[in-house]
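Exercise (ungraded).
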Amino acid sequence: MLEIRNLTKSYGDILALDRFSLDLGKGEVLGLLGPNGAGKTTLISILAGTLADFSGTVTFQGRNLFADRALKNRLGIVPQDMAFYDELSAMDNLLFWGGLYDVPRAELKRRAAELLERVELAGRAKEPVKKFSGGMKRRLNTAIGLLHHPDLLLLDEPTVGIDVQAKVSILDIIRNAGASGTAVIFTTHQLAEVETTCSRIAIMDHGRILAQGTLDELVRIVGERDIVEITGEFAAGPFSEALQDIAGDGIELLSVADNLASLAVAATEQIPRIMDRLFRRKLAVTDLKIKSPNLETVFLKLTGRSLRD
Amino acid sequence: MRRLLLVLANDVRRHLKAPMAILIFMVIPLGMTGLIGVIFAPQTEGSELPPISVLLVDNDKGLASKLLVGAFDVDQMKEMFQVTVTDEADGRKRMGRGKASAMVVIPEGFTLDLLDAKPVTLLVVKNPSEQFLPDVVEEFMNTMAVMLSGVVQAFAEEVRGIRAMLDRPVESFPWDKLGPEFGKAQKKVVAARTYLDPLILRLKAEETKAAGARTSFTQADLFSAVLPGMAVMFLLFIVQTLMRDIISEREDGKLRRMLTTPLRPIELIGARIAGGWVMGIAVLLVMVAAGTLIFRATWGPLGGFLLLGAVASFWAAAFFALLHALVRNRNQSGAFSAPIILAFSLFGGSMMNLEAMPKAFRTVGILTPNRWFIDGAALLRDGRFPFVPILILAGSGILLLALAVPALRRRTSV
Ligand SMILES: Nc1ncnc2c1ncn2[C@@H]1O[C@H](COP(=O)(O)OP(=O)(O)O)[C@@H](O)[C@H]1O
Ligand SMILES: [Mg+2]
């Protein structure tokens, strides 16, 4: 239903999207994971039609997304900014923003009331939005994108900086949308969200997708190895040098930063060898954790960065 | 079109929900007008103002001129005016030294011309360094002119008889009875003017330093003269506030969100400009109503005033649309708007009586909407249709719109 081919966008010298390609089917919920600056917002903005000067093509329901104005009615966007009118009530906001799409007025009112119920704002529908908490505003921001029952829903960091209740409510909406046949792309840098919400996960950095698949498929990238996380007093350079000659021999450096490094090892028996090298170089280790592979380690392996960067 | 109206209706609803800015901008001009009124308005009773010093030159020395001179001598008038009777040469000398607020010159042959129903002109020389006192004198003389013209026309038959009594003393005219009611009667008399047109007795105003320069002359009372200037100044402020949405929504992401919907940029631009225009008109109407209720201000025919207000509001909407297409952010909008509006108001006569301003100011004033609105309002009160002000405001407004729309389109598209 959605085919993105070789989207490339640069801001001056910064390459924000680098030949980005992706396919998405009806009802699929894709979690787009990426650290800050990966290009997530740039991608969503291009698809939403609010960013120009890029190359590549996007086909949506068999038509060029950017040439066919009628397609805007099939597209739902939930921007990263909370863009609505603070001085108006939640209901008035829904009726205004929903009214910009081609939905009959009576139907719009019905859907607005129903959505307010679903995001648990029905009791405060008539209050000015400026009295809302951050979480309530996020829920409203999300609801606005759904009024016209889009075929493709794009959400940019819909759960950033909110309480658990609001997060659960928003993830619920995303799952529901997928279940009712809407294709969804939502960006996040929270692993737990994609693990529970998405039918497919894509990990992106530097403007391109590094890997994608189901959770299981992605975890297999790291393989049946254990993850060793080492904390200590060392700089990244000497640490990498110390392990240079044994790396590859069942040991893989996933990410190395000052005072913190992650390695994948085929077996825990290799840990003493690692410690031996570090002691010989007088690199002090203060803590060592052994984990089984998960999305986080996949992310670490692919991007060399932790999501919390 | 449906979406344009939706945005327009939503903008109106929003500004009604958060009306503080608009309310403040409506209360300030009314308050300022009231203040000016308290300070400068002529008061017939319990006046705390010093008497206005007037020089009276009687070149006629006939019955009618004596009536006029006598009118200044009635008790009630004495509280208001301190009259010095002198000759024209001495009067001009004194005015030159700023010794009086105004000089009234009654021309030679005044009485006879008046009785023959020939047009005659009274000259009121005003001191340009004073703002409102000379206007009061002019106002008073205007009232007298209208009254005398009315009397002469209404009693055309009797006038012939009056000619026979040319030498009766002025004292026999019952001024004492006229005096106390004079204030109330004044407005009615002035209102009667439209029915007396053309006036037999005309007034000519001039200023000492700008001798020979014709000055525009308003006949309505102080509030009516001050209020339009205030109204247009704050109309500019209010429309500016409304049009600021253009830039603030670009900054807070609402514009971007709108562009993801089927709303076309041109529909949004249209809605914003139409919204500023419509709300500007509404605000003017409220100010007219308030001005009428509070100050008993007069505006001339309401339809004409509405048309003038509509073109002024249109001008303001187009101007601030253009401004907001050019500025980069909210801060710049604020930094440019306020000084521009204040400059418009200063040079255009919203803050000072145009007649009290240097000539250079008045020339610059031609470039301001304030000047044309104030002129238009004066013409309307004068019973004339303000063709030129309306044409100028509408024409320059259309020009501004023609510049604003493409500029906004460039900044509204992705
Ligand atoms: N308007 C802009 N001007 C210049 N650089 C930008 C702009 N927007 C984003 N970038 C750069 O493009 C890259 C991708 O940004 P973005 O798409 O916002 O990433 P994400 O949403 O994944 O954090 C980053 O390096 C960012 O600094
Ligand atoms: Mg982002």
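Further reading is listed at the end of the chapter. For now, observe: The pocket of magnesium ion (ligand 2) is lined by residues A 40-41, 80, 156-157 (CB under 6 Å). Residues 2-42+218-412 of chain B form one domain.
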